[in-house]
Amino acid sequence: MSNRLAAPLSSTPPSAARLEPRRHDLVFRRATLARRTFLTPAYVRLRLVGEELRGFDSPGADDHIRVFFPEAGAATGDLREAPNREYTPVDWDAADGRLDLEFALHGDGLAGRWAAEAPIGAPAGVGGPRGSLVLVGRPDGWLLAGDETAVPAIRRFVRTMDAAAVGRVAIEVPDAAHDLSVEAPAGVEVVQLHRGTRPAGTELADWLDALDVEERPDGNVFGFVAAEQSIVRSGRALLRDRWALDPAMTVVKGYWKRGTSEYHAPH
Question: Which pTM was predicted?
Answer without folding.
Answer: 0.91
